[in-house]
């Protein structure tokens, strides 16, 4: 029976590389002699057979490669090959790929005549000989009998390992079988073995325990076993636990692209005592792929057979990939044999999962193995991306092991997880096992492993090679959350939650803290801890080679071993113990509020260092130094909550050396330093009143806060606690000012100025275009419709009580007027104005939106071009005032929205003289604006919100000045440029004081209102244009310079009119 999708060729029941159509693709058996060089014979057998198969070389044409070259020429280049003293399973394969091997006759294996004693040659011979270089090598999953067969049949011999015991050595013939068939280490490739061999064929005919057998090629001469070979049961002596193979040419063949949107169910098949079920079975091709959006299910229940179930099996070239947004599941069960389940088995470059992948294996008598994802890519990069769920679980049986993902690549493994990767096993469980190459793992999801709590080992993330692990999610393992065997940089970011100890076993490991967080677990084996984030707390019992606090706050609430350097910008804090020397050029601050930090060693504070001590109602921070405290730099004393004063011991040392260069306290505290003999220091502290520190503009709120400070609670206390952290009276007053309604005072001034600007628009209309032209139509009678778009940019300077600010205003007015034969014009106008403003510092900002209407009238002598002109206007309006008050010291912002009503009026007079075409027109006027604001309450800043009483303000301005103009005419077009100069005096500078109280408590207090500018000088220019008797425009610019905290104002206006 075939699985639902299969592209692999059917395999024969027996196969032998020594007899393929009567030809042998591998040379004869050799003798390694009295030398632990089996690693070379196993790898070279795989290399020469693979080369021969790829190039069609057999019998006498088949190449015979030199094991001696690997032992004595390549061996010195690798730590894992030590001449006759043995080697590992990785480096011999690496050597064949990286350097290649010459033929045997170039460098024969050196045995004496007794065929036993090895004559060790000089190191590094025969590098000038041509070498056969293999392309790549790949691992095979443990006890994967089907893949071993396929490689043997298609590519070449398998490099294998066995555990040799007496029964193995005594083998002479038949099928060898023993009980060592299961992995016995958390990383299967490190299971017990002591001898390297090669596999050259198989036979599915049932042997012991109903299993087929391999043809094993040994290197103990052709007198051992069956002419140097052994027939060995498929899993005995651990022969199938850590196999690998080589390729000599790139993967070729058709690349299959399989897409599934439905449901695929595997159909199991049997061979050689195994039962196999593959939902998808694809072999070969450089870039085959599987895309699953549906369901793929493989289930196998083998009874007495070795049972393997795979949801997806894709074995091919380095560009192969599997993506899943549906469900892939594999379930394997066996009553008396092993059960192995793979959700995905991939030899290729990418697994991308956004769905669900699961593997479940159970055996009642023997080992069960489950791999959510098993993926390898030889010497090519491997990427695993998971935003879904990957689960591996085992049950029943003995030595059961589960692996969420196992990735293997010598070129590098990149894992990105924002989903869930989990493994549940009895003996061993690993969430993510990454082996054989550099690692980059970024976890923002969950990686978890769980094993038997009494006898099992569970590791969240396990790596064997150098790499970087970045965690902002959860990593859980009851034995270790993270265990890295080689140099590793572990970066913990905000959101990191490690459940289980961390063990880093490299020689240059580093833990780097970024962002903020807390870890309660133990760190061991780490050479360097670097704090470069914002705020981290370590609460476990940990050991580091050195600790560097580069930036941010590192709180120690457990016991941490390691010499510590606090750099400028860094803070060492907490209520735990640092074992080792501490040298500080930054900040040391016991506790998070009031706390007790112990340094079990010497403490040295450099000249730019700072010791921060907090004082509470009846307690203070304490720094204990068991060694010598060498003091320099600054002592800073801060309140923690309400600090009324008192006497506190803050430093207890084995011995004191030196002294603080500067001792400073928060502005609300008076601090005296008191020596306690030769081994301690104390503080005598008293409290200052806010009112004594305040400027006149802040005196009202300061005195009010003095009355409520000691009883303030909850949110109000939190605001005042932050206020008390100001170090100087200037800082204190800056914070107090943020608590006052200064922004509302600015909004009032801006509303009054907008009212004056509205009157100015009406004035411009009353001083209208060429008076003599009005008589040209209907004996002086006319009706005019006009509109104006004014805009203004202003700047308000800071004074003792108010901040500097910028404002931007724009609006639109529409007007209608009627002129009589007697020179009298009456009209009405209405419009809208919006003004936005922002403080120069502090972030306060707001907007006034007004709707205004005016009635106006003016007269000029209709009988002459010279003469008097008089005018007046009255108006009213409503203004919506919105403001945002920023309290930076408290990290808050309040919002307000209230209404005001406006009344305005103006009177003006002047005289126009004509000197030829020149016009000289002096003007005298009086402008009045009254503002009535309702009371209101802010929101958004909690207890720091203000409740405001209603208030009334007005502005009365006298204006004197004049204009000079010169009309130019061409046919009906008339241009009249003018320049204007005016002096403005404010008769009512002082606005009403602002009465308010804080939502958190206290009485109403008074804040001085913002004064209007006393005097101003207006310099302007305009161009009046009449296009015809019915259409005219006015384009004007004015710059206003005002004194005494007023504004510098730039205004631009465009007026259009139609007369009919």
From TrEMBL:
List, alphabetically, the CDD domains matched.
Peptidase_C1A
Q: Which GO terms describe its biological process?
A: proteolysis
Fetch the InterPro entries from UniProt: Autotransporte_beta (IPR005546), Autotransporte_beta_dom_sf (IPR036709), Papain-like_cys_pep_sf (IPR038765), Pectin_lyase_fold/virulence (IPR011050), Pept_cys_AS (IPR000169), Peptidase_C1A (IPR013128), Peptidase_C1A_C (IPR000668), Peptidase_C1A_papain-like (IPR039417)
Which residues lie in coiled coils? none
Pfam families associated with the record: Autotransporter, Peptidase_C1
Q: Boundaries of each Autotransporter domain copy? A: 778-1060
Source domain of life:
Bacteria
One of the record's GO molecular function terms: cysteine-type peptidase activity
Q: Which family does it belong to?
A: Belongs to the peptidase C1 family.
The protein, known as:
Outer membrane autotransporter barrel domain protein
